[in-house]
Write a structure and sequence with these properties.
The protein is an alpha+beta fold. The protein is built from 11 helices and 7 strands. Helix 6 crosses helix 9. The longest helix has 27 residues. It is globular and about 50 Å long.
């Protein structure tokens, strides 16, 4: 047993000898209400959450098929995408891409957007709270740490509060957070909340996705979330939870208005 422990320890030492921090954009996402969900649901319902995340599919769908020679931005985007790290532990999801590529921030944002969009599709909609930071990050198959990871976690835990994925202005100013041709985001297009933080327009993007040309509020997606959110608010709930769903109720209407304007302008 001691010999096995020595071998494992030596392997860890070698792993760290060959690695160093990588400056990165890091998203730390938390699945809201996961502990209660695990308590009240069976294995199949819990597994559905992670099946909807579908990491391999999201990595592929994050890039578009086009000749890299035609667009250097796409080339850098795809390079960042290939080097992106995603790790899940229980109700926490970490996404990181090396910040030496300007488009890495767009990659991280796209993946956050895709994952949250998939989780809206669950039988019981699942909501993420998160934050994106920039800083030093180390990640292997077993270990991850770094100041960037800590900053993202603390912002998610203490600042994001509501089911939104926030990005501080100093992070937005450092990277290319959108390439319009890649279906990304424009700085001006990011919604800004009352506390001044910009956040990813996950609801608006999801409502527009595969829209069949009908008004947003007549669509199945809007009606599903509208009914679910209001069913939660119609009952008694702990105040912090109620505040999150009141925010979601307001955000759904803002997102529907934005998506409807985009739909009619297409």
């Amino acid at each position: 047993m001691s010999y096995l422990f020595e071998l494992l320890s030596e392997g860890v030492k070698i792993c760290f000898m060959r690695a160093d921090y990588t400056p990165s954009y890091i998203a730390f996402l938390d699945i809201l209400g996961f502990k209660m969900f695990v308590k009240n649901h069976g294995f199949i319902q819990i597994r559905e959450i992670f099946e909807h995340i579908g990491l391999d599919e999201k990595l592929v769908s994050g890039s578009m098929i086009r000749s890299e020679k035609e667009d250097q931005r796409l080339r850098r985007y795809n390079q960042a995408l290939k080097q992106c790290k995603i790790r899940i532990m229980s109700d926490s999801i970490v996404i990181a891409a090396p910040s030496r590529y300007e488009e890495s921030l767009a990659v991280v944002m796209d993946l956050c957007n895709n994952i949250q969009g998939s989780l809206y599709e669950c039988e019981v909609p699942v909501f993420l709270r998160g934050a994106i930071a920039e800083g030093e990050f180390y990640c292997s198959s077993q270990v991850m740490f770094g100041q960037g990871l800590i900053d993202a976690y603390l912002a998610q835990e203490n600042i994001s509060v509501f089911p939104r994925i926030i990005i501080a202005d100093k992070v937005l100013d450092k990277g290319v957070l959108f390439v319009d041709d890649l279906g990304g985001y424009g700085y001006e297009g990011l919604p800004q909340d009352k506390d001044g933080y910009h956040y990813i327009n996950t609801l608006g993007n999801w409502l527009l996705l595969a829209n069949c040309g009908i008004p947003i509020r007549d669509g199945v997606k809007y009606k599903k979330l509208y009914q679910y959110i209001n069913s939660v608010l119609s009952d008694y709930s702990e105040n912090k939870l109620r505040q999150k769903y009141l925010w979601l109720q307001s955000e759904l209407e803002r997102a529907a208005d934005t998506a409807e304007r985009a739909r009619t302008n297409i």
